[in-house]
Every structure is written in structure tokens, then in C-alpha cells.
Amino acid sequence: MRLYLDTNRTTLIFSGKVIPKAEYVELTNGERRRSGNQAKDENGTPLWTMDCFSADDDSMRAEVVAVTVASHEEPTARQFAPVKFVNLRANVYVNSQTGRAATSLRADGVEGANQAPKAA
Fold first, then answer.
1. pLDDT in tens, 97-118
2. What's 113's DSSP letter?
3. Are 88 and 5 in contact (CB under 8 A)?
């Protein structure tokens, strides 16, 4: 299930940390392991994880949340500044190892950032 988020009610502050999202493969015994490659979306676009602080006015403490962004280039934003994501959504799923509901955040891009591949 995908739930699109209204980011006007919560501010995300970019931590300055971006890493390539790891690709996982399922082994014959059912275990999942990192392949050593960067994960890609259904269109073959590389996936990146951007760590942000959630500065929700209703919360007593800030949380670090990871947002997965598809981009041909490493996405950027100003460190410790508010960041807006394009089509930010929560993906709700059941964790196959624990059987519990889990949530991940995904976005189509970062507002104001160039998400298209560079011309050679």
C-alpha cells in the first residue's frame, strides 16, 4: 500500500548524508543478502537513501528518517536545511523476517534538484 504524504505539516531537515541504496538478492535457502550492487527502480534508475531529521511540531523528539530517491545522479540538498521531496509517499509492507508491519519512505525526486541524467 502507498500513502502519499502531506509535507506541509512536517518539516524534513536534510542531514547531509546520502548513500547508494544496497541491492539485495534472495539466496536459494530463502535468506536475503547484499549483492554489492546499487539497487535500481523498475525503470533501471539508481536508488539513493537520503537521511533526514523529522522536525514534527507534535513530537517531543526529532527522528532520523531515510527517504529513498530514484536519480541518475546523487541527489543533493543543503545540509541542515529543510528539504522538499517530489511525490513523497509511505510504503506499508509486512517485514518477511519479523512478520510485522513496516514503513519505508520513497520519493520521485528532490524539489529544485536535477533528476535527469547528464549529457555525455
1. 789 999 999 999 998 764 444 4
2. S
3. yes
